[in-house]
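Much of the work behind modern protein science is quiet bookkeeping, done one molecule at a time. Below is the pair of lines this work produces for a single protein:

***
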Amino acid sequence: MDLSDLVIFKTVAEEGGIVRAARKLHRVQSNVTTRIKQLEASIGAQLFFRDRRRLVLSPNGESLLVYADKLLRLADEARTALSGQPPSGVLRLGALESTCASRLPAVLSRFHAAFPNVRVALQTGTNDALTAAVKERRLDAAFIAEAPVDRELTALPLFRERLVLISPLGHGPIGGPRDVRDDAVIAFPNGCAYRRILERWLGAKSIAALRILELSSYHAIVACVASGTGAALVPESVLDVVRTGEVTRHPLPQVLASIVTPLIWRAAEASPSVTALESLLRADRKPHRQRAPAKVKENRL
């Protein structure tokens, strides 16, 4: 088994068949088929099952794909390091929906200008889903909401966020859970760190009695609140970029309102692209020198 075998195997897995893989690799189909059979013979395991016109990875194939990704990535990193060339290839980056809306445009613009040979493949998700993806090597790095307690992962604190409750215009003051007992609560699905903060504020008794509407888009959440559907908790920075109607903002207790977004990655396996992103962010980072935002008193968006 050599790297070229792994490239062919990975391409067949991604394309779901020999024909498309051969086309992408600029090889004849018989050559790709032969190489896959030789790879299966060399490791003594079947790598694919045939499902109609597609090839589906077997359990052994799933396991090998994890190692193939890692080995091919390490080979690319070695070539880049030894050549002295700037980072290149694909940076698999994850981010919260809120971070994508309010923070990433400026970051990615600077990163692209500094490292034009790196292609960013961006994936959004909840805090827990993104953390798991980095830990399982499906993502190289991710912007999340809670730094994980995991020795395999390193966290760089970056953006200080202020969380606020939002309600439709005309809603009364919200000073505690009792003030939303007649409302639906709109939140991201389980696994969202901001949802956990909202649940801590509400308390177990209030949660049991509330109607919860789960959405996966801040545009949708703010629009639903503006239309009178219910109340929600959002980072205030999102309200500066999401304009989907007028809402009223209500402050949270300070102990819950302030949160810092970190970038996480596997420190022992940081690729040149991740290291480049880390360096760029460290140069721009001012998380503890930012002026604290003024108190919010039912300001309208």
Remarks:
- The two ends are 60 Å apart (CA to CA).
- Residues 287-301 have pLDDT under 50 and may be disordered.
- The chain has three domains: 3-83, 89-160+259-284, 161-258.
